[in-house]
Amino acid sequence: MTTALVDFVYATMHKRVNDPDSPYWLPKILEQIRTPDGHTLSPLAVDQWSLGALTGDQGVNIADTIADAWWIFVKRAFKTAKNAGVPDLPANLNAFISQRSNTDQYPTLALNDVSVDGLPNAAVGDLTGLTPTADGYRGTIRVTTAAYDSHGYQPRIAINGRYQLDQHVIVIDDPRAADLKPPTQVVLKGLDAYGVDWPSQAIEGRGEFLFTVTGLVFDVRLSIEATGTGAGRTAKVTVESVATVGTPVFTLDKDHLTIEGDTVSELNKQLWIQSAVAAFNSPDAATALTAKLSDALNADDFRTQFSGSVTDQLDKALDNVFGTGALPADSGPPPTGDGPLEVYLFDRVRASLNDTGSGFYPPTVVESSSDPNLDPLSIDTIDLGDHQVMGVPVNFTLNDVSISGIADVLVPAEDASLVAEGVDATLRFGRIAQAPITVKASVVATFTKSGDKLNGTMTTTAEQPSVALGLSFSGPDADDLTIGLRSLTVDADPARLDINVHVDGLPDDALHQILNTSEIKAGFIQGVQDGAAQRKDAIAKALTDNARKVIAGKLAG
Question: 424 Cβ partners below 8 Å, 6+ apart?
Answer without folding.
Answer: 416, 417, 468, 469, 470, 471
